[in-house]
Write a structure and sequence with these properties.
Catalytic activity: GTP + H2O = GDP + phosphate + H(+)
Strand content: 5-15%
Bound molecules: guanosine-5'-triphosphate
Shape: elongated
Helix content: 55-70%
CATH architecture of the largest domain: 3-Layer(aba) Sandwich
CATH class of the largest domain: Alpha Beta
GO molecular function: GTP binding; GTPase activity; identical protein binding; microtubule binding
Organism: Neolecta irregularis (strain DAH-3)
Region (Disordered): 552-608
Number of domains: 2
Number of strands: 9
CATH superfamily of the largest domain: P-loop containing nucleotide triphosphate hydrolases
Structural class: alpha/beta
InterPro entries: Dynamin (IPR022812), Dynamin_GTPase (IPR001401), Dynamin_GTPase_CS (IPR019762), Dynamin_N (IPR045063), Dynamin_stalk (IPR000375), G_DYNAMIN_dom (IPR030381), GED (IPR003130), GED_dom (IPR020850)
Length: 767
């Protein structure tokens, strides 16, 4: 009888299953199958044996099923029999071509095969045993028997046996294409069914779970499972089916399975509770519904499986491409293959620098962007941070000026001293410049190490050689780059171009220091004024404390005296407020009525001009005014004299207190003549101005030099260098030595691709 294509669905899936297990060794396609789960001794093996109608599964105490058993039941017509006349037989996938018509031998082989992989103790193993049973009495079905859930390890079982079994079961039932056959004994409360609990975790809506209730014959008298079997207790879309298997006693009494199936039928037909639903109970009904459910499930899932296969074909093809192109396989193509890798490596190196690489990171700077970062951020910042007059003490400048003028005093700007001092400062730029070269060199080395691919990893020796050659090239470029950069600095030091348009020059420097001198003096005076005010206030307050009475001002009031009212040179103690509104002491009107503040403002306007005049006069030929060469007197000395006047009449204790305060206020400043101070300032500002010009030039030239000598040169010559060094007949065999692990991976990948293509072809025969 010719069967329709849809009736061939289960054999088709079996064919796919064989294909997958024979080649890949695991079910990556997620083929539809029925997975049997339940707690230990719930009756799983008994259900399977009933479905086959033969005793073939191992029995014993404790855990018996220790590896998944993938059981394919194949319906054969009585005509299609074994040559020796047997109508039923079994075949193991691991023993191809060997037919087992004696079912007790099948049991023995399952035991042996379990022990071979899972050991003699009671441990489990995830590697499945695949068994086909051909019989005219079975319906086409693919079932997976799994170890029963156990709570407590017994004997020499591993302590985490429960976790191991749960993980194994979950792995099978989690696959969306699996139908879960959850076996629960009827004599145990359903809420304690481990099989149902696990099934619910992965199939929350109960769409692909079939409940099987065993041991209905063992329920307490007066109780029955009618409610459960009618689907009113536990919601499962595919429902519950009740079965009665052989009891332990039946087995011991060698009750045959055909006898047992008859007894089961009788049980349901005669039982007062199940009589009316007897046609929906028992092993025969279970086999039929499983077959139909599996078939419709396969029908439903086939388009998905086809789509999945296409996706797998695409993925695997891509993975295979990653291992290299097959276009250059074979000895005659070794040269082309090497050239292909050399070009790819060189291109990848160049692309990483240019930023045109296809796998650019979004997490961190890489390749050429790092080089830019080194130029602009690292090198740029280091240059910025250099102090142009770093390490130039006043004494150094003084000595340089003195040495440069010989026995005479200089008439003009001491140029020789400037020359002498600015050269070492220019050298300060060399260390950051050389560091910039090194950093870029390191970055290029990193880039060269990252230019590998899975394809290239297949040839570890070639990969190492490519990196080595490019590293050598970079190293060779390092010295010329460093030498050039060193020259750049030396060139800058070789000739001090005081004619540079950006250079401040003598006149500019004079202006600048005159201005800054004036600013400095102004600041210094302001500071001294503040100090004076505070000092006067402290002295008066102390007097008040010492004499223990309120000091009354000359106005006779018991309030602070308006400081404007204090006559110049008065010896009377005065109470002065320390508030900021209080006019500074130099604004206190003198006896002659001249406001000091006013005179100060007038004189300050002309201060800049007069200072500049005296400075220019000094440098450009006027005879030195002996009064100018006096030691610069700290400007607070004037104020100090005023305070002395105020405190001259104070008691001795107060006098010593005040003198202590005054001592503390004396600043230890270098004693320079005005001329010396100005010369030093002038030299400093000239050095700073010139250094800034050189710094700008260097910050512009060094990156250009690095790009030219190191980066661009390496980019331009990398391909030639690789070909010259590696494209040699004598090296080909060694360079194309394939990594064994990767060769195996590639072969596996090729095999998988073939399997997926074949599976897709099988499915397209039906769809
Ligand atoms: N009376 C009776 N006994 C049953 C029934 N089903 C199973 N048994 C007995 O229960 C015991 C366990 O049955 P198995 O089929 O070995 O249970 P299992 O779930 O395969 O056990 P493991 O493989 O160890 O997890 C055996 O002694 C069976 O004879 C049933 O419906 N009625």
């Amino acid at each position: 009888m010719a069967s329709s294509p849809l009736e061939n669905l289960i054999p088709l899936v079996n064919k796919l299953q064989d294909l997958v297990f024979n080649t890949i060794g695991s079910d990556t396609i997620d083929l539809p199958q029925v997975v049997v789960v339940g707690s230990q001794s719930s009756g799983k093996s008994s259900v399977l044996e009933n479905l086959v109608g033969r005793d073939f599964l191992p029995r014993g105490s404790g855990i018996v099923t220790r590896r998944p058993l993938v059981l394919q039941l194949i319906n054969v017509s009585p005509a299609d029999v074994y040559p020796h006349g047997d109508s039923e037989w079994g075949e193991f996938l691991h023993l191809p071509g060997q037919r087992f018509s004696d079912f007790s031998l099948i049991r023995g082989e399952i035991e042996n095969e379990t022990a071979r992989i899972a050991g003699m103790n009671k441990g489990i193993n995830r590697l499945p045993i695949n068994l086909k049973i051909y019989s005219p009495h079975v319906l086409n079905l693919t079932l997976v028997d799994l170890p029963g859930l156990t709570k407590i390890p017994i004997g020499d079982q591993p302590t985490d046996i429960e976790r191991q079994i749960r993980m194994l079961i979950s792995e099978y039932i989690a696959k969306p294409n699996s139908i879960i056959l959850a076996v629960s004994p009827a004599n145990v409360d359903l809420v304690n069914s481990e099989g149902l609990k696990l099934a619910r975790q992965v199939d929350t809506s109960g769409k692909r779970t079939i409940g099987v209730l065993t041991k209905l014959d063992l329920m307490d008298h007066g109780t029955n499972a009618l409610e459960i079997l009618s689907g009113r207790v536990y919601p499962l879309k595919l429902g519950f089916i009740g079965v009665v298997n052989r009891s332990q006693y039946d087995i011991q009494e060698n009750k045959s399975l055909s006898e047992a199936l008859r007894a089961e039928e009788e049980f349901f037909q005669c039982h007062p509770a199940y009589r009316n639903i007897a046609h929906r109970c028992g092993t025969q009904y279970l086999a039929k519904s499983l077959n139909q459910t599996l078939m419709s499930h396969i029908r439903e899932k086939l388009p998905d499986i086809k789509a999945r296969l296409n996706a797998l074909i695409g993925q695997t093809q891509q993975e295979l491409n990653g291992y290299g192109t097959s276009q250059f396989s074979g000895k005659q193509h070794r040269g082309s293959l090497i050239l292909h890798f050399l070009t790819k490596f060189a291109n990848s190196f160049i692309a990483s620098i240019d930023g045109t690489s296809s796998d650019i990171s979004t997490k961190e700077l890489c390749g050429g962007a790092r080089v830019y970062y080194i130029f602009n951020s690292i090198f740029g910042r280091e240059l910025e941070n250099i102090d142009p007059t770093h390490n130039l003490a006043v004494s150094d400048i003084r000595t340089a000026i003195r040495n440069s003028t010989g026995p005479r005093a200089s008439l003009f700007v001491p140029e020789l001293a400037f020359d002498l001092l600015v050269k070492p400062q220019i050298r300060l730029l060399e260390a950051p410049a050389q560091r910039c070269v090194e950093l870029v060199y390191e970055e290029l080395t990193k880039i060269c190490h990252s230019c590998t691919s899975t394809e290239l990893e297949r040839y570890p020796r070639l990969q190492a050689k490519l990196i080595e050659v490019v590293s050598d090239l970079l190293r060779e470029r390092l010295t010329p780059t460093q030498t050039y950069v060193e020259s750049l600095i030396s060139i800058q030091g070789a000739y001090i171009n005081t004619n540079h348009p950006m250079f401040l020059g003598g006149a500019g420097a004079v202006n600048s220091i005159v201005n800054s001198k004036h600013d400095r003096e102004k600041k210094h005076k302001d500071l001294e004024r503040k100090k004076d005010r505070k000092r006067v206030y402290n002295i008066i307050t102390r007097q008040e404390l010492i004499f223990g009475k309120q000091i009354t001002g000359t106005n006779g009031r018991n309030t602070p005296v308006d400081p404007h009212e204090i006559p110049n040179g008065t010896s009377s103690p005065v109470l002065v407020s320390a508030s900021d509104e209080m006019p500074p002491p130099h604004e206190i009107p003198r006896a002659n009525g001249v406001n000091h503040s006013q005179s100060h403002r007038e004189s300050s306007a002309s201060a800049t001009a007069s200072a500049r005049d005296s400075f220019l006069n000094y440098f450009f030929g006027q005879k030195e005014d002996p009064s100018n060469s006096r030691v610069v007197e700290p400007s607070f000395s004037h104020s100090m004299r005023r305070i002395d006047a105020v405190s001259s009449a104070r008691p001795p204790q107060l006098s010593s207190l005040a003198s202590k305060l005054e001592e503390n206020a004396v600043v230890d400043e270098p004693q320079l003549t005005e001329r010396e101070q100005m010369e030093t300032d002038l030299i400093r500002s000239l050095i700073t101005s010139y250094f800034n010009i050189v710094r700008e030039t260097i910050s512009d030239l060094v990156p250009k030099a690095v790009m030219h000598f190191l980066v661009n040169h390496s980019k331009d010559s990398v391909q030639n260098r690789l070909v010259t060094d590696l494209y040699r007949e004598s090296l080909l065999d060694d360079l194309l030595f394939e990594d064994e692990g990767l060769a195996l991976e590639r072969e596996k990948c090729e095999k998988m691709l073939e399997v997926y293509k074949e599976a897709a072809r099988i499915i397209s025969e039906i769809l």
